[in-house]
Amino acid sequence: MSELLASVPFAIQATGALVGIAGALLGTFLVLRGDAMTTDAISHSILLGIVLVWMATGLTSGPLQIAGAALAGLATVLLVQLLVRTGRMKDDAAIGLVFPALFSVGVLLLNVYARDVHIDAHTVLLGEIGFVWLDTVPVAGFEVPRALLWMALVALVDAAFVAAFYKELKLATFDPALAAALGFAPAALGLALLGLTSATAVAAFDAVGVVLFLAFVIVPPSAAYLLTDALWRVLAYACGIAVASSVLGYAAAVRLDVSIGGSMALATGAFLAIALAFGPRHGLIARAIRRRGRRSSNENRALCVHLHHHEDDAEAEVENAVQALRAHLRWSDAHARAVVARSLDAGLIRRQSDRLLLTAKGRATAREIVAPGEADGTE
Amino acid sequence: MVEAFAYLNDATIRTVMAGAALLGVTSGVLGTFAVLRRQSLLGDTLSHAALPGIVLGFVVVGGRSLPALSLGALLTGAAAALLMLLLTRRTRLKTDAALGIALSLFFAAGVVGLTWVQGHAGASQAGLETFLFGQAAALLRADLPWMAGVTFFSLAVVALFWKEFEAVSFDPEFARAQGLPVPVLDAVLTVMVALAVVLGLQLVGVVLMAAMVVAPAVAARQWVRRLPAMVALAALFGALGGVGGALISAVGRGLATGPLIVLCLTALVALSLTLAPERGLIVGLARRFRARRTLRDRQLLEALRRLQEAHDDPSYAAEQGMVDAYFGAPTRARFRALHGRGLVRRVRHMPDERPHWEITARGRDHLRHAQEADDADVNGAADPNGADRRRAANGTRGAEEPVDAGRSGGDR
Predict the structure, then answer these.
(1) Are residues A293 and A201 in the same domain?
(2) N or C end of chain A: which has fewer CB within 10 A?
(3) Do A211 and A324 fall into the same domain?
(4) Which of B90, B101, B248, B400 should be substituted to probe chain A, the one whose Cβ sees the most A Cβ atoms within 10 Å?
(5) Residue B358: enclosing H or E segment and its boundaries?
(6) Domain-wise residue ranges, chain B
């Protein structure tokens, strides 16, 4: 155990995985609620909170820092809501105004007062997970990296929050009006969620930096959301993706000698790409296949309607032949043959020398379209 | 003061001010369209996405040449915009999630790229990190013609496609019905925002460009309601904020330029929000205060009239203390004001020394007129003044109305 904790790669990967799990737990709800860019705003303006707490107490980490930054995050959210409520601007514009302003104040304060201190704006933005093992505290006889310890505590709080309010969060996310009617106080719950997000962001900034924290909050839940529909599965998949990203990202970063945090964030992107392409129902390939299926079934139905239309016609001989389809349905010969073959397979039509005839099933299909409601009895 | 003028003679500072002005004009003009199309945060995403492009440009050219870095930034910005479009159009992810995904992934790629350059291309990369927050002092005189060219190009495109941009910004459905190529125009406007972002790299940096796009437009919107005026004013505000921030940064050496420009722009927004003549918060408060006073005056007159009626005495005068008790607030000052307008009359019933008030004939007329105006308001839009007043009360008219209606559901 103590050897494991002393191992540098383990400390780094575990910290990354904890950032990922905490981010995924909160991020699932944030993404589903449409608060992704609010998270962006929060993760920037916590810089001001970090700087103010540092100026007041001289501390750069610990519970005071986390509380102070959480307050800065909440202040951002409330300020945005206040601006929106004046009716003078939309919420996206308000976000775009508030966080650059707060972030700017933070950067300038650092510029003026903290030229040589451990915290600087670059660290807050980019983080340096590679150094987490340098700063350790003894816990029960083991030297535990401080960032790992704080991340573990914050992730625990996040998990407890999600577990305790799972039902309420679910309802507030998918049906805020009903949640309000049932007295679940969705607004307060939303603020609590965003407050926890700020606290998690500040605990994570040492490790991955705030912008990469944003990747951990938004990308794994989005990828999970493309893979599955049930909320608990989205949560589980997102956590899994986050942990896998930490491990893979670390390996890639070591091999290429690049930023570990950035590499971990990029790994979440790789999972998103996979989900985007291969998601079973919502992925691009599944959608394309479904669309093609819909199109071919539409073509079969068009053929049935065409045959039905000319069934008792004097020109049925001419119209209901494969050759005529080119002129009337504007299909090429090859395409017409393909549709006819498909419809034959589906048992919608049968062939009699050159003529195409509807089967009972095909006639029912056509009737359903031409005269909906009357077709019931024939099938 | 003299010192400030001395600074104006400094060639470096003149360069910085000219660059900041160019940037302000461009981002003000293009930001107006972004804000109206509810894409305020697009600037944020595109600017973060510029970071890998900067690294790319640096690696390809092998040095810190602004045009090369800018071209790289434009390319990755466009790629991020494409990713965002793919995610919103082809999946069930919401716009804000798509923006966040593009932002964080491209920025991560930039960070990875920065560290890669650091490890593989020697120490000469030191300059690249200044693009995070901007560094005015690094702006060269040779960069100016190039920045002017970009500004001129964007302004020319906006002027050329003014009608089309106006249509897609206010009512994309209508624009589509008119046969305009809405997706193409959307793409053009998006790329233009990327252009503004690229201009700001050197001065503001990638992290804070969001404000550069949003703030001038929001400030301008408070003063005017028509698009041409809004665009012009946003350009002016953008230039003012840019020059102001750059100047402070140049004078107070070592202060990052980006944050200073952003704070100048934020100050302009705050001033506009409070002071603007029609939509300003102060005017709004004053309007509300006046409305409440008018209502209280009517309540007072109405109370006097009803008391007369109830007592069946056309000269019944109410005792002021009693009216105070009824309204739960002192009414003396309002009675005096009404007295000044001839709507009430002061009566004394000696030996009772307390003041009494009686509604005058003019007061009754006043009440009747107010009542008639209300009825006309309620009875519908037949009264043009009433309709006007209602719209003014809602605070939205002109520019914003079609945006609310057209854009809200149009994202997908």
Answers:
(1) no
(2) N
(3) no
(4) B101
(5) strand B352-359
(6) 2-266, 283-391
With beta carbons less than 8 A apart as the criterion, state whether A26 and A158 touch. yes
Residue B230 predicted with pLDDT over 90: yes
Q: Which of B374, B377, B354, B355 is nearest to B366 (CA)?
A: B374
Q: Which CATH architecture has domain B2-266?
A: Orthogonal Bundle (1.10)
Q: Give the list of residues 6+ apart from residue A213 with CB closer than 8 angstroms, or none.
A: A19, A23, A43, A127, A200, A201, A204, A205
Q: From chain A, pick out residues whose CB is under 8 angstroms from the CB of B97.
A: 31, 34, 36, 218, 222
Please give the CATH topology (third level) of the domain spanning B283-391. Arc Repressor Mutant, subunit A (1.10.10)
pLDDT in tens, A46-72: 888 888 888 888 776 677 878 888 888
The answer to whether residue A144 sits within a structural domain is yes
DSSP A321: B
Range of the domain at A346: 286-378
Residue A181, domain member (yes or no): yes
The pTM score is 0.80
Neighbours of B295 (CB within 10 A): 11
Which residues from chain B sit within 8 angstroms of residue A104, using beta carbons?
208, 211, 258-260, 262-263, 266
Interface probe with B: pick from A79, A104, A126, A278, most Cβ of B within 10 Å:
A104
Which pLDDT score, from 0 to 100, does residue A374 have?
61
Can you tell me the ipTM of this complex?
A: 0.84
Write the pLDDT tens digit of every residue in A166-206.
988 888 888 888 888 888 888 888 889 999 999 898 888 77
CA-nearest residue to B87 within chain A is A276
Cβ-contact A222, A272 below 8 angstroms: yes
In a 10 Å sphere around its CB, with 0-12 CB exposed, 13-18 middle and 19+ buried, how is residue A176 labelled?
A: middle
A 230-269 → B contacts, CB under 8 A: 253, 256-259, 261-263, 265-266, 268-269
Contact B93 A256 (CB under 8 A): no
Give me the long-range contacts of A158-165 (CB less than 8 A, separation at least 24).
A158/A22, A158/A25, A158/A26, A158/A196, A158/A200, A159/A21, A159/A22, A159/A25, A161/A192, A161/A193, A161/A196, A162/A25, A162/A26, A162/A29, A162/A235, A165/A189, A165/A192
- Show the tokens assigned to B144: 């100016």
List of residues 6+ apart from B123 with CB closer than 8 A: none
Are A209 and A82 within one domain? yes
- Give, rounded to a whole angstrom, the gap between the first and last alpha carbons of chain B: 54
Which residue carries 């030996």 as its tokens? Answer: B351
